[in-house]
Write a structure and sequence with these properties.
Pfam families: AraC_binding_2 (PF14525), HTH_18 (PF12833). Keywords: DNA-binding, Transcription, Transcription regulation. Residues 204-305 form the HTH araC/xylS-type domain. InterPro entries: AraC-bd_2, AraC_XylS_family_regulators, Homeodomain-like_sf, HTH_AraC, HTH_AraC-typ_CS, Tscrpt_reg_AraC-type_HTH. This is Helix-turn-helix domain-containing protein. With 313 residues, the chain is an alpha+beta fold. The protein has 2 domains: 2-185, Jelly Rolls (Sandwich); 198-306, Homeodomain-like (Arc Repressor Mutant, subunit A). The protein has 12 helices and 11 strands. Strands 1-3-4-11-6-9 form a 6-stranded antiparallel sheet. Strands 2-5-10-7-8 form a 5-stranded antiparallel sheet. A hairpin with a 2-residue loop joins β7 (81-85) and β8 (88-92). α4 runs antiparallel to α5 (167-185) and α9 packs across α11. It is globular, with a radius of gyration of 20 Å.
Length: 313
């Protein structure tokens, strides 16, 4: 077992040993500690205790990802964390799990001290399709779900006894952990049937297009279908496989983006109307109604209650 202890100034240099390369900003008086178990050439299991930090992986850093395309799965034992990747935003309470990938930019910020257990491994070891892995990233995993309870218990036990295992046993135990993770991820990953996978690929392209073009007010269901050379009816059939409609998914992603922006101090001087426009709403009243329907409060009220100027992102 390797033990790392570090101050905020030392964290950026050590971050790649715990995460993958990121730019880190530490809160005042930061102290961190991580215990790392090597399970294989591209697998590590760690338990860490950290003060408040923000960690950012830029698009440029993601394009320079290492050949093994690392994935990082974390279970937060204590603390409050927010994660953004693929224009999805997750707020994690104690016990929740989350997957992130090195090949895409992401942000992670904690407003409290945190304790977590992390499994870092090569993407090729996870027995899920590429589209399924990407769709699973930045989705909070329910700590009460049976698969998550099993996975959490297994990782905690493995961390404690790893020193007693041979290298071969560690490798096998690490692979078993990844299999359990795959089972848990299937609870949060949209499932798309189809023997040749063509429907899954098309749906994945449409989901990605939505997330990358939220600001485009012309992106509606008909336009989404046209851009992917399918009929509107075909678009609805594809989205049925993940339990939603194209319009509902587009609206959900726009509101999630607005929800995050309104509590982000970087956008504190950006008016509500500009936030609405930034996520593709032409009309402020339409944005206000949709936000209230989704979150039970107005955008302005949400900002007043949740904007914390001291939070680093």
């Amino acid at each position: 077992m390797q033990i790392l202890e570090y101050s905020g100034e030392e964290l950026e240099d050590r971050a790649r040993e715990i995460f993958f390369p990121v730019t880190v900003k530490a809160g005042p008086g930061f102290r961190g500690r991580a215990a790392i178990q090597e399970l294989g050439e591209t697998q590590t299991l760690s338990r860490s205790h950290m003060g408040r930090i923000s960690a950012v992986r830029t698009g440029r850093m993601a394009t320079e990802a290492s050949p093994d395309n690392l994935l990082l799965f974390c279970i937060y034992i204590d603390g409050h964390v927010r994660v953004r990747q693929h224009d999805r935003f997750a707020e994690l309470a104690a016990g929740a799990g989350i997957l992130t990938e090195a090949r895409s930019s992401y942000e992670r910020a904690s407003s409290t001290d945190t304790q977590r257990i992390s499994l870092r491994f090569s993407r090729e070891l996870l027995p899920l399709r590429t589209a399924e892995i990407t769709e699973a990233c930045a989705r909070s995993m329910d700590p009460t779900a049976p698969a998550m309870r099993m996975l959490s218990g297994y990782l905690g036990r493995l961390f404690k006894i790893a020193d007693e295992l041979t290298m071969r046993q560690r490798l096998d135990a690490g692979r078993a952990a990844i299999e359990l993770l795959a089972m848990a991820l299937r609870d949060v990953t949209p499932s798309v049937p189809g023997s040749d996978g063509s429907a899954a690929v098309l749906l994945d392209m449409m989901l990605t297009h939505v997330r990358e073009h939220l600001a485009d007010p012309n992106l509606q269901v008909g336009e989404l279908a046209r851009r992917h050379h399918v009929s509107v009816r075909r678009a609805y059939t594809l989205f049925e496989q993940i339990g939603t409609t194209p319009g509902a998914y587009l609206r959900e992603q726009r509101l999630l983006a607005a929800h995050m922006m309104l509590s982000d101090p970087r956008y504190a001087l950006c008016g509500v109307s500009r936030v609405a426009a930034a996520v593709g709403f032409r009309d402020l009243s339409t944005f206000d109604r949709a936000f209230r329907r989704q979150y039970g409060t107005t955008p302005a009220s949400w900002r007043r209650e949740h904007l914390r100027p001291g939070l680093l992102l």
